[in-house]
Amino acid sequence: MLRKTIYAVLVGGALLGLLFSACGQKKEAVVAKVGDVEITLGDFNIAHKAITVFNRPPLVTYEDCEAFLQTLIDKTILVQEAKARGFDKDPALQKEMSQLAMQQAIGALYKEVSDSSPELTVEEIRDFYQMSRASVKAAHIQVGTLAEAEEIAKRLRAGEDFAALAAQHSVDKRTSSSGGEIGEIRRGQVDPAIDRVIFSLQPGEISEPVKGSLGYHILKVAARTDANMEEFEDQKQVAAAELRSKKRTETWNAYLAGVKTGLGIEYDQENLLWLNGVLPAQGANDPSWEQKVGAEDRARPLLKCSDGSWTVGDFVDYVHTERGQQPFTTEGAALIQSIADAHFINEKNNAEAVKRGLDKTDGVIRTVERKVEERLVDVVFQELAKDAAVTDEATREEYEKQKETLTMPERVSLHVINVKDRAVAERAYQELKAGASFDDLARRYNTGKLQEKGGKLDPMTKEGLPAEMQRYAFEVLEVGQTSPVVSAPMGNAFVILKLLEKDPAHPMTLEEATPELQKALLEVEKERVLTEWLEKRKEEVGVKIFPEALNQLLEAGDMGEEAPGGEAEGQS
Which residue has the higher pLDDT, 564 or 532? Predict the structure, then answer.
């Protein structure tokens, strides 16, 4: 609708890593000077290769090289301005960059540890291929409780039909109507607990109840297909890559298990279960539970280990500041333990990465400095453009230019009940069928901001909804009707929908178009402010480009190709 702003190019492209490039590097040809700061061929190459391959601009002509160099010059000036204003001294930025440095160092530790796995043999690859390419055609009955599963298993042993029981009792509505048929699955595609059982069954066999992450399952295998070993040679490299990735993960997990064992974490079970009872039942961005933790409660010991200890107060503070989202109660307080375990293991990994010097590697330093520069460019741009504004007259003029092409897509207004557990969602659905008010159930079952809004969502287009929710909202339901329980995979949740209103597609009015038009026009106005400021600043500091050095890039003849692998590759 409106052209891409220079700011989007500056922040979206590569950054220079000025501090890094200035530290003890070999003298190289200078392609530009910005005041006293030199941009070398090495800086240019690093910045260009740091852009992901699909976004990296080709450098085929001198003009291509000069255009990319201009973005580096602009960024250099903006970073200089940000530092002159002291933005790089912001404590929040420094803390964020310190955390990023440790994340990068732990990433390097992961690579160092996981790459220690021994080389694969052909026999290992063949065995993995044979196992991973096997498949089963299966069906299941999913229920919420063990008691329900055991009752169904008893009826199956008595000779009742699997498909009929699936249709009557399975809470997986995607498969219940087809007799519980899941279709063909391969190793690793389902919950590990289910995977182990389902691949142990022979055709026609039915399992005992199996506990999975979403409830209890009874499994039936209709057919098995073994790997086609005639295709092994053609697929050997793919299988090897998969197995190598699997072994890296296993090696890393074994390393983490060793770290945890070495920490010797011991929990105070009484206080652990007390804290678990205080947390919200289903989880939400709702900090009200923290008010239940008084001063005396904060002092309760929660855990101790070789590297320190935590009180209940330590846990509350960590969750509040680090996670930004409150957890929810789990059986045996497992979630609290996983959060606390992860914190102490992470601290141990930080120390190990520093001990190995991984926080001082070129790749880590370069990544952090690029991120610093990216943030500085952003903050100084916002400061420079803070007074930019769009008038109503400019909005009307733009609307008149575009109104023939502006269309408001079809939208729906929905009332929803959203929960994490399918069994809870099914219970709410049964209450609806029994005559309970959707309003009452929405207030009872929803959490956080959705609860505050009574479960009512702002009008949404098809693009704003997962596929199954989209189908019910736009194709199945009439206004006033409710859906059965629908899976919302992106949020790992289960919802019940009530269609409140459906607004068909129509030409946009000025009022409807104004928010997006003003947003786009404001970006153009900010671009104008930035462009004028940059041109003035270039005159003040003095910018000089050295064409003979820039031409060396073209003479090298490889700038349009994919960059070789390395630590800078693909970071932008």
Answer: 532
Q: Which residues pair with 136 in a beta bridge?
A: 185, 224
Q: Where are the alpha helices (DSSP H) in 85-121?
A: 91-114
d(CA 539, CA 545): 13
* Buried/exposed code over 395-425 (b: 16+ C-beta within 10 A; e: otherwise): beebbeeeeeebebeebbbbbbbbbeebbbb
Reported residue count of the chain is: 572
Count the neighbouring beta carbons within 10 Å of the beta carbon of residue 317: 14
DSSP 387-445: T----HHHHHHHHHHHTTT-EEPPEEEEEEEEES-HHHHHHHHHHHHTT--HHHHHHHH
Angle at 61 between CA 58 and CA 62, to 5 degrees: 115
Q: Are 163 and 179 in contact (CB under 8 A)?
A: yes
Cα 480 to Cα 499: distance, rounded to the nearest angstrom:
5
Residue range 388-425, pLDDT digits in tens: 999 999 999 999 999 999 999 999 999 999 987 777 88
How many Å apart are CA 46 and CA 304, to the nearest integer? 46
Higher pLDDT, 189 or 369: 369
Count the Cβ atoms, other than its own, within 10 Å of residue 193. Answer: 13
Q: In the chain, how many H helices and how many E strands?
A: 23, 15
Domains of the chain: 1-130+242-408+515-572 (no CATH), 134-226 (3.10.50.40), 411-503 (3.10.50.40)
Q: CB burial class (10 A; 0-12, 13-18, 19+) of residue 519? A: exposed
In the chain, the percentage of residues whose pLDDT exceeds 70 is 88
Instruction: Please name which of 196, 185, 200 lies closest in space to residue 135, comparing C-alpha atoms.
Output: 185
- Phi and psi at 268, nearest 5°, equal -85, 100
**pLDDT per position as a tens digit, 46-69:** 889 888 888 899 999 999 999 999
- The string of pLDDT tens digits covering residues 477-533 is 999 999 999 887 655 688 999 999 999 999 999 999 999 999 999 999 999 999 999
Backbone region of residue 551 per phi and psi (left: phi > 0; alpha: psi in -120 to 50; beta: other values): alpha
Q: How far is 197 from 4, CA to CA, in rounded Å?
A: 54
Cα separation, 95 vs 518, in Å, equals 35
Contact 495, 416 (CB under 8 A): yes
